[in-house]
Every structure is written in structure tokens, then in C-alpha cells.
Amino acid sequence: MDIILDNLPGLLIAIPLLGAFLTPVLSRAGDNVRNVWVMVITTLSSLCGLLVASRVLEAGTIVYAFGVDTISNVIPLDSGGIPIRIIFTIDPINAFMLIIAAVVGFCITLYSISSMEKLSGKDGFFTLLFLLVASVYGMIATGDLFNFFVFLEISSLAGAALVAYRIDKGVATEAGFKYAALSTLGGMLFLVGVGLLYAQYNSLNMAVIADRMQLTGLDIMAFVLFFTALAMKCGAVPMHFWTPDSYTMAPSSVTAFLVVSSQASLYALFRVCFTLYGGQINPLTVGWVIIILGVLSMFIGVTMAIPQKDVKRLMAYHAVSQTGYMLLGVGVGLAALSSTCFSQGVGMMALKGGLFHIMNHALYKGLLFLTAGVIMYRCGTRNLNQLGGLGHNMKWTMIFFMIGALAIAGIPPFNGFASKLLIYESTFLFNPLIAVIAMVVSILTLASFVKVFHSMFMGPKLPEYQDVEEAPKPMLIAMGILAVLVILFGIFPQQVVDTLVTPAAFALVDYHGYISAVLGGA
Amino acid sequence: MIDNLPFLVVAVTILLGLYTILLKKDLIKIIMGISIVESGVNLFLIVLGYRWDSIAPIFTGAPSLAMVMPTVQALTLTSIVIGVATLALMLSMVMIIFRYYKTTDVSKVTKLQG
Q1: A98, A390, A450, B104: which sits with the fewest CB atoms below 10 Å from its CB?
Q2: What is the ipTM of this complex?
């Protein structure tokens, strides 16, 4: 038992990878065997993620080196204090992201079993899905820059293949190609940055590099490369054009997880700004760059969303817009690091708001994409002009959609309100104009979702959807879990902030703690 | 000067690749551009790992010269493997696109706008 608990960070990757490559083999024995297998793997891997997270929150940062004889022997004594192995470093912010990936990962797999039931090619689908899950866990947990690049590429490949999985007269392939080409290019930029850092500091470990960081000209170049690559992967505005395409064309359950994989890139962006270059870059400049990206994403995302006729495309543009809120919150936190208002708690409050919004976004956006998937599954169209009157037959789906839509618009008592309130309050103290923009965007979001709700669920029954049925049970359960969490996080935000978000925010700011956790007080 | 020549080659290769990606209108050529960028990056990594007059860290009977860790070579191998996988994926996607659109011209593969 102890050996399992000690090696949990390794199992985090091993279980989904094992699941991925054994799925095609086991499904030779039939659909039921595969479904059971898929559920076992996803339960185990989610449990593993939650266990790792809870251990980190209880006992502090876990540092796990692959291939050591004793678990505490992270840095070999004869290596001169340099970690030579691949190291996973899981501190409270990683734990926070792991919880998101674990919860959403479990729900989407449960949902996929049902939504994929009538379709062909299920073996490949679940293989790719588990690869995506493994890569997201890896991106979150790794403390090694090159290892991060590898997981980034796995997530791009698996993500692009899943986006293009339903060829859909070539349209899905077009979206998948866009995603694959862009993220490969982003990965290459990232790799050049890794090379630049390795050339100067002879290490790939984030803690070692952060410890030795000099901020030379080459480091700034590497920073720009990292920033560009990761901002592209998380869908911030000047590089957002792949987001609506791939989110629209991917199967809905995959879209819900692509959101999480974008957020893993977002986490990496914050990690680079706060830890890797912590204390070296000028927080005000970089903070303002992030704020400007955030405001642009918020505003352009929501204005592009309003005229959309395709429900998933509309939600995808809202995802861009909500990413803006996270960037805004964390950007304000970073910009306030240097000034006196950080000590007054403004910066910390913004940081908490930004991070809390990541979690809330993953939950309600996942829920919304899953409801869109139900509509797609039952009615066969995503076009808002053709849908209507579905509320008569699909009561649960309607309720779940309503919960998600109210949460994304920031209406109390749902979770979006809690995190948006933190962002509004802190941003208002930092710069009132930005807070006003954020509120306007929120109102536009509400307007847009009222429209969607009205045209999908309200009105008399349409003749073509006279006998449309409610979603199957597994899909309802998956959506139900997310909906319950959305409501719980909205009613008890203080508890969530205290137990999960505050440690994460402190861990993000405290780069000395990260370095000494790996290098041992150095 | 001669030491920096490989870096110049790297820069030229990556810029050529980027030029191809940004200015060519054909999907296959875009993939070729991505592939060229990848080669540039791989070359960059390998060049980083080279030191004059040094040997691999094998201690048995080693002459007393500087030793260089073969980390970058390992990185490059991994990166090449990833490159092959991406290349295969993207080429197969272009095949499917061509089957449905009858073209690989970027300006005509545009069902997803707006």
C-alpha cells in the first residue's frame, strides 16, 4: 500500500497511458468489456489525481523523481546538487489544477460512453481520450521543461486527432488541421526557448533554472517564446482563431476536456511568469501585458459570440472571453506584486479570483458543452435557428443548461459569481476602467445566453422534435456531477477559496518555496 | 566567428520554415514549412550540445578531457520522434481534406469562418 501511495505521481501518468494502449486490445472482447475497462481506468486515474492533490494540500509539496531507488533520493548525492532525472513537482497550484482535471476527466469519460454508443471507431476514440488525459496530468505535474514540451506535444496530437475524429464532410478535419499545425508551431517555439535556457543554465529542471536565472538577453528571448507559445495554446485573443473552430467541431465531451487542456497551458504560462522568471522579470510590465491580453480576450470573445448561430461556436467564443477573466485576475495579481497595493491584499485577491475562475470555468463550461452535446446527440443539429421548444421533453438538460448559463454570466448563487466578484473588487481598486469593462462583458454574456436559452428550450414544441427524448442516464449523471459542483462552489465559495485557492495563490507567488522544495533549502 | 556559423544556419532554417508557413497557400507546403522549422530546432539543440575537444561521460579509460552530458542528443531524438508523429497526423488530415474539398489551397479550404 505504501509503495502505491509513494508512487502516486508516477501512476498519475501511468494509469491513463496503460488504459489508452490496452483499450483497443480489450475491446476485442466486446463493447461491454471496453466500457467497464474505460470506467475502471478513468475512476482510478481520477482517484489518483484527487489523492495526490489531497496529500499535497495536507503535507506540502511532493517532489517525485522517476527511476530512483528510494523515494526520498530525488537529487543524487554525486550529481553535485543538480537533479538529473525527470522530476515531478506538485505544489498546491498543481494540486489545484489536478483536481480540475480529475473531476472533469471523470465526467467526460462517463458521458462519452453514452454519447459514443451508436458511433463507430470507439477504440481509437478512448485511446486518444486517455492520451489527452495523461498529457494534461503530465503538463500539470511536471517540473521539467523538456518533459513539459513532450506532454504539450502529446496533448496537441491527441487533441487534434480527436477534433478531427468525426470527419463531418472534411470540416472537422479542417479544424483539426488548424489545431495541429498551430500547436506544433507553438511547441517548436517552446522548444527553442527550452534550448536557450539549457544552453545557459545546463539544466532542464524548472527549479534549478529559476534558481540560476540571470535575465540575460537570451532569457528574455526565451520568455517571449514561452509566452507566445503558451498564450496561443490557451486561446488568448490575438492567437484565438483556432479555438472556435476546434471547440465547435470536436465531439462535445472532448471539447469539455480541451477546455481543461487549454487551462493546463494557462497554468504553465503563470508558472513561467511567476516561478521560472520569478523575481527577475518586471512584474508591472508583464502584468500589464497579461491584463491587456485578458481585456482583449474578454471583449473580442464576447462580441464575436453574440452573432453566432451555432450553439457550440457561440460557447467556444465565450470560452475565449472567460479565459480573458482568468488572465485579467492573474495579470492584476502579477502587476500588483511590485507595488504597495499587494500588501493591502488587492493583488492577492485578484490572484485568487483569477485562479478560482479557472476552476469554475472548467466546471460550468464543461457542463455547457455537455448540454450542447446532448442537443447534438438527440436533435442532430447545432443550429440555433432550427432548434426550439426542447424544454418540454428535455427537462433535466434544460435545468443543467440554465445552471451553466447563469454561472457563466456571474449570477449568484452560482460559482461564476464568486470568482467574478473577487476579480471585480480587486480590479476596481487596481484600475476602475478595467473593472467596468469586465462587468459589461459579463452583462453581454448573460444577454447572449438568454438568447440561446430562449431559442433552444422555450416556445412551443417543433414538429420535428415532437418525440425527442431526454438524454441517457450516464450523460445525465456526468452533467449532474458538474452541476452539483457548480452550485456547491457557488453556495460555499469561502470554504473552497480557503482550502484550495488560497494555498494555490500563495504557492504561485512564493517561488523561493518552489525552488527550495526541489533543491532542498538551497 | 566560425563557432557561430551553425547558429546562423539554424536561424536561416527556422526563418525559411516560418516564411513557408506564413506565405505559401498550399497545405502540403505549410506542412513542409513546419517540418523545416522542426529540423532547424533539432539542429539548434544538437549544436548546443557540442563542445570542442570533449568526450561523452564514459569514465572507463577516459582521457582527461572535458565531458559533455548527452542530454541534448536525447532531447533531439525525442523531438524527432514527436516530429514524425505530427507529420504523419497532419499529412493524413490533408489527405482527408483533399478527398472532400478536392483542393489543398488554403484560400479554398474555408468552410469554418465567421
Answers
A1: A450
A2: 0.93
In-domain check, residue A335: yes
**Domain annotation covers residue A439:** yes
User: Alpha-carbon distance A247 to A268, whole Å?
Assistant: 21
Residue B62 forms part of a structural domain? no
Containing structural domain, residue A472: 282-491
Compute the distance between CA of residue A8 and CA of residue A22 in angstroms, rounded to an integer: 20
Beta carbons of A387 and A397 less than 8 angstroms apart: no
Flag whether residue A66 sits within 8 Å of chain B, measured between CB atoms.
no
User: Is there a domain that residue B106 lies in?
Assistant: no
pLDDT at A109: 93
How many distinct structural domains can be found in chain B?
1
Task: Supply the pLDDT for residue A430.
Answer: 86
Searching chain A, which residue's CA lies closest to the CA of residue B27?
Answer: A177
For residue B72, being part of any structural domain is answered with yes
Contacts of A186 (CB under 8 A, 6+ apart): A152, A156, A228, A229, A230, A232, A233
Residue B90's domain is classified under what CATH number? 1.10.287.3510
Given CB atoms, is B27 within the 8 Å cutoff of chain A? yes
| Backbone conformation region of residue A113, classed left if phi is above 0, alpha if psi is from -120 to 50, else beta | alpha
Give how far A225 is from chain B: nearest CA, Å: 13
Containing domain of residue B8, as a range? 2-51+68-101
- Residue-averaged pLDDT of chain B: 88
* Ranges of chain A with pLDDT below 70: 71-72, 78-81, 338-344, 521-522
Q: Do A169 and B100 touch (CB under 8 A)?
A: yes
Question: What percent of chain B has a predicted confidence (pLDDT) above 70?
Answer: 97
> pLDDT of A155-208, one tens digit each?
999 999 999 998 888 889 999 999 999 999 999 999 999 999 998 988 899 988
Q: Does any domain span residue B39?
A: yes
Q: Per the structure, how many domains does chain A have? A: 1
What pTM value is reported for the model? Answer: 0.94
How far is residue A359's CA from residue A275's CA, in Å, rounded to a whole number? 21
Residue A298: C-alpha distances to residues A212, A232, A301, A312, A328 (Å): 36, 15, 5, 18, 9
Q: Do B44 and A171 touch (CB under 8 A)?
A: no
Judged against a pLDDT cut of 70, whether residue B36 lies above it is answered with: yes
Q: Is residue A408 part of a domain?
A: yes
